[in-house]
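Q: Give me the 3D complex with zinc ion.
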Amino acid sequence: MSLKKWLTLSIALMVLGVLLAVVGYFGIGVLMAIGLVPLVVGLLVYYGMCRCPECGAPLGRSPGSHCKRCGRAYDWDKTPRSNSLF
Ligand SMILES: [Zn+2]
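A: Here is the predicted complex, encoded as structure tokens.
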């Protein structure tokens, strides 16, 4: 799976988790706890899989277009380097 797809997946999971938590906070309380699951999984996917395809460095909070470690431009269609969690 490409870096772009991993990033999209992690952001979608985190947004879903936050939405569930907000709905849970203002209404159905159990959704707040359920929302923690996609939020945590999204964070794990982000920090585990959203890495530079060349050197494996994590993207960090504001990745930009080039890797801060190796300086190469991110190839968003490439698979992240394999020294990751999954
Ligand atoms: Zn790099």
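A quick observation: The mean pLDDT is 89.
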